Structures are given as structure tokens and as C-alpha cells.
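Project standup — Tuesday

K.O.: blocked on the structure for the chain from last sprint. Re-posting the sequence here as requested.
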Amino acid sequence: MQLNQGLKSERIKQRLMNKLHLGCGKNYYKGWINLDRNPDNFCDILHNLDTYPWPFEDNSLDEIWADQLLEHLSDVPKAVREVHRILKPGGVFNGQVPYCGSVWAFIDPTHKAFFSERSFLYYSKDAHYGIQKLSGVTFSIVKTKLVGNTNTALARLRNCIPFRNLLKWFLWNMYDGVKFYMVK
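H.V.: unblocked you, prediction finished:
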């Protein structure tokens, strides 16, 4: 772990709110611990999330936010196991990843993993019979929601198509992302 230049460790200790923003990039959240591996981004902690263990104590955080991050990691199950380790019981892990049925998932050559709305069942102790689970990880509530971008007129028009949830099985780009919510 390396504290970002210009931030004093005493100031960080005062600001710790037990909420972690993983891979913050250019989106700095006040009241959160902002972590990124790029020293050009303003963050509280510089750390490469492909390096384990992460610089947090067991059961020390209330909430972890990861937006457009998991798809860039080399070993997603290992990262989720690490999230589970540092979250307090009852802690929340949520965020968003690109949907595997979207061109956005494949445009970025740094994406190493792909996700559907069912991908997070792998980390749920409440998953249906027959779904393989990651041992030692016991997230009890897993909710996912497919979402569509609204940044272009074409995307907004696509989001109005009826029966999109059915059409996603036959057509690409019916959704752009998967929002997830898990509780330890």
C-alpha cells in the first residue's frame, strides 16, 4: 500500500468512513476511501488490486463500491474472496460491470472477464441447486439488474423497446451493464 503523495496519513485516518471506492479513477468520492493503481488519478491509496492481500484488515469495511472495475482484474474470484475478507458481517459489495451481450464488454482490450446477470450467483450461498459456488465466500443477498446506457439518442430509443429482456437472448446490445448488490 502506498499513500498518495500530498495526503498525510493523519488526514486519511480522520476521513476513513469505512466505505471503499475501488478503482476510483477520476471519480473521487468524498467520505470514502478512494483506491486506484494509477498515480495520475487523485486517490487516497495507490494499490494494484491484482496484488494480494489488499491493504485492509479483516472485517474492517461497511461498504465497497466497484464501478467498471471487476472486468479489468486478472482473477475475479480471488478479488471477490478478498472483498469478502475485508467486509464486516452485513457489509455491502455493489457496483456495475459491462454486460456480456453488449459490444461495450468487448471494445476495451483491457477487459479480462465478462458478466451476465447470473454471474454473481457464483458468490451466493443462496444460489439454486446445481450452480457452482466459490467455497468460503458466503454473500447472502445477491441482486442483479441489467441496465442500459442513456448517453446517446440511439441508446435511449433502444431502452424503450418492449420485451427487451426476452430479446436479449436473440439480439446483441439490448443492455449495456449489470448492476450488482451483495451482502456478506
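K.O.: great, moving the ticket to review. Residues 76-86 form the longest helix (11 residues). The beta strands are 2-3, 19-22, 33-36, 45-46, 61-67, 87-98, 141-147, 177-183.
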